[in-house]
Amino acid sequence: MQPDDSMINRERMMRKHVANKVAIAAVAAAGMMWSSGAMAATICFAFQDLETEFWVAGHQAITTTLAEAGHTVLERNANEDANRQLEQVRDCIAQGVDGIILIPQDGESAVTIVGEAQDNDVPIAVFNRPPSDLSKGIIVVADNAQIAQQAVDFIATQAIEANPGEKLTPLIVVGDLGDPNAVGRRDGFYAAINAHPDAFNTPIEVASEWDAATALANLEAAVTANPDIDLLFTSSDFLFPTIRSVLEPRGMWKKIGEEGHVPMAGLDGDVTACRLIKEGYVDATGVQDLYFEAEAALEAILAAIESGESQPNEVIEDPGFALTSANLAEREMDMWGCVLAQESAS
Amino acid sequence: MTPLLALEGIGKAWFGVPAVSDLDLAVPEGVVLGIIGENGAGKSTLMNVIGGVVPPTSGEMRWRGDLYQPASAADATARGIAFIHQELNLFTNLSIAENIFIDSFPRRLGVIDTGTMRQRTATLLDRLNLHATPDTPVGNLAPGERQLVEIAKALHREAQLIIFDEPTTSLTARETERLFDTIAGLKAAGTTVIYISHILSDVQRLSDRIAVLRDGRLVGEGAVAAFDVPTMIQTMIGRELSNIYPPRTAAPSPEIVLRVEGLSQAGVVENVSLKVHAGEIFGLFGLMGSGRTELARMIFGLDTTASGTVSLNGLPLEGNARSRIGAGLAFVTENRREEGLMMDATIADNLVLAAIEDFGRAPLALLDHDRLHSATQAMRDEVRIKAADIATQPVRALSGGNQQKVVIGKWLMNKPRLFLLDEPTRGVDVGAKHEIYAIIDRLAAEGNGVLLISSELEELMGICDRIAVMNHGEITGEFERAAFNGTAILAAAFRETVN
Amino acid sequence: MSVSTAAGAGRTRPDITDRLKRLILSDYFVLWLSVAYFAALVPFFPTLANPANLANLLSNTWPLLAVALGQTFVMTTGGIDLSQGAIIGFTSALVAALLATAGAPEVLSKAPIWGVLITESGGILSGQAGSLLIGLAIMLATGIAIGMLNGVGVAYFRMPPFMMTLVTMIVVSALAIWLTQSENIRNLPEGYVMLGKGDIVSLYIGPQDRSQIPRREIMSLIGYPAVITIILAVGAHFLLNRTVFGRQVFAIGANRQAAEISGVPVRRVLVAVYGIAAFCATVGAILYSARLEAGRPTLGEGTFLLDVIGATVIGGTSLFGGKGKIIWTVFGVIFFVLLSNSLNLMNLSSFHIDMMKGAVILGAALLDVARTRLSREVSS
Questions:
Q1: Does the N-terminal peptide bond of residue C214 adopt cis geometry, omega within 30 degrees of 0?
Q2: How far is B277 from chain C (nearest CA, A)?
Q3: What is the pTM of this model?
Q4: A5-28 per-position pLDDT tens digit
């Protein structure tokens, strides 16, 4: 087994869930935006995969919302088959849709499909997974550094408030630095820490290679060498269970307000992170704002349709947000992990 | 007194060919009835009718005087009829007790009552003198012991008629003795027995009465005293050779086409040597399981041989069937459907199969359809296949005789030097048989060698120049045409000594 | 009066059923079925007959047909090849690794092929003279070799084709994913991409008064995929229906034992047949990966196999072996592509589409059984 298999799988799982959530958001947003307008657009929504449960639950809501607003949405599910997605988009084009919103199977096929749409003068927007080439089409991309910075900023402030005047030791679990996502997340972490030059010692870096076993071994070693950690950031939420298994025996896995609590933040916004924030063990997690992304993609595509622009090219950055113990109540339902958690609970 | 089982005018035809016709037979209660007959005499069909496996096409059966019309094998079991076959129907992974109670486990409070089961099994085993505990897995038993378990199963079901079909085939001499004791015991206890075997001396020794079948008819029946072994054989062969055999048109030449020397394969064929001359029809007679088909397969290169050589026209034959076909062998197998024909393919496609490579044109081996067409048409005329259109009609639609002609025609297209014919007239009506004999004669007259395997002695005596007899993989006799003697040949096949 | 009517009906009825039987048994049955299906749906879904949609139909037909041609050979021997999809994924990744004009280290640097077949400056063949042809040759040879391995398993070790090709599917697909670490390989050379996308004849229907015709109104009529697939189909037709080899393929499917006893080199033919199936899959890999402009190890996964086997069976090639025609498969693929396309136009969810496809394949399998029975009836 390759060390990062679990990561790949996990990533896939996550993406899948994200796609599901976004599907509802995107279509619902379309309905809301145009409910007041008079123009009825036909939009092809091509996504790479959907879970059955979601489909059953979400289908009714989507169709009714859109029907009421007077729009037509052609839904195309590629079932994780890039070729099928290409054929489906071609079918959409042949049907004369006004615009296409794409959640691609991967960055490479996204480039091809965007090209196909633009060759045929149909505006296209891509979100959730950016094409390898950002120069064509309306591309909504999450800014990893900015998202990480927001989350780390929150715990840095918490840590400084709890220990005024002390020099604090931060720790970061970094991902596979061959992955641009991991690099961006680390950059964001340093940006937040370096904003308080007097408050922090040089951060301890723990390599995970996006692998739980590697993270476990390295974190054990790091914590044994430096038992006084004041702040912890993990480049991905999926490592929280690993972190817990290292910290708990050392009395460092405590709720906010309890003696020995280490302010902790992560990134991704998965179900575990949502639960840990609610329980008080974790302070914050950075999230791709998928609702923002869906809405941005839709707004942009509808604007392009209205202006008659057939090959709009634009990169929209998703700044994301940090779900924290402070804003939990108001923003909980903007985070896909919490939405999923609630869905499975009900 | 009403017989236990009475058959009245029973007939059964397969695809229009009668296997049993208008057969009357009474099985009195409490006797051992021996049934004998050549292969294909109708014994198996008759047993299947009695066992409810196949319904008769005509006639009726009576069980203790009441009409007996079994719809399935279960009906026969319910009446009290049990079969002990060559191949036993036991679950080797289960215990003796479980096998005996397989279809009716005794229960107490819904749970299998193992205590009762064991106890009853022990009683049965005791009665049969089988010294094994009821929990012994059947897989651990010797073949003879397994057979006793089958008998125990029959007794447990209170069978009144137990039919043994070739029960001694896989038994040692001692086991056979024990089986005979058991059968005597059954008889003493009032159970009726039908005993079918090729081993005539056994039948004579065990039976009270003997019934002889030939061509699906009962040709002799009576008390055992009236049947010594030669009489049995005579009755089995029956009538004089009829004139359905065409006269031979040419005599064999001294040139040897096929020479087999010392061919052996453990347990199958032992040290077989034979010669087939050009223009000769060489018959190979033997009972089922005598190794004759296996010998043909070995000559043709389909089965492996441990030792011995085969040569054609003086050149040694080696390698697989494909290379031997190239050397000039042809093999009409006994299973037309499984090994000879593509049933759903057209007659023409079948005819051309063995010689297909001759019809490819270089360099891409594109088929020469014109030549293919004329060659298949010519072959159709040559072997007289009765079909409307050989290019569209599948062989499935043909009668058995015409299907067999397609198989022979297929090989003729290849112009072989030696034909291995295994039961070429099986399941073929009399008219087509005659035509096939004529074709065989012509093959020989054209200077080819023919090795003809058959279980119909009459047929071999009708058209062969020489007949060799096999028993248990060995050649037990060889007869020149002038010395053909049905009784002697059959005796060699049964390995009985006839004075 | 009533008696004569009854007699009349008695006379005409067998005539109608007879015609129906002949229609079902006709080589062109599936083509007529496609035409009838098309005609029946057009009034409700006019987009179906829209030239752009027709062009899509055609372009979706070619790669699927290329793969199904190979499946036809295997099915005619009474086998099945489940590994075609995996071969597509594997060979598409391989050719991309050989030919890519550049490699992306951030994506591929952890893949075992990095530094061996592909580096930052591209695949090992990139930039060399004749690299496209060499790359394609290596790709096709690799595909054929995998197929022949299937053939050896089926022919020499008597593995059931289902089992053998299932194992190959799992192993080859895992190998492709491991070698690339599940990453797609981009930057295919233009010459390669042309094979999947290049147009030779395009069609524009409309007024000629505009200086510039919008791209979406130009229909691709004949492209390289069409030419490649048509050549492949014609070759397959000759091979299966007009050569000694083809007859041997049929014979094995009709009765392997009889074929063996009749001197057909059964094992050699089987190895060749599975090689052909893999060759066709590899051609499909070229068309699919070229139009997606990337080699992808996961190409041909999932329900793709359903499309290939479904199209072949619908065409009329028997699941039981011994019956198959290239032209049937052509019609089967057309019907299948038309079906998928029309189901898409009906805006059904992908689940419903797969359910419909499954039902149609079941129907085709039942039709196969019915045909076999009918042909026996008609002939006897």
A1: no
A2: 24
A3: 0.74
A4: 444 444 444 444 444 444 444 444
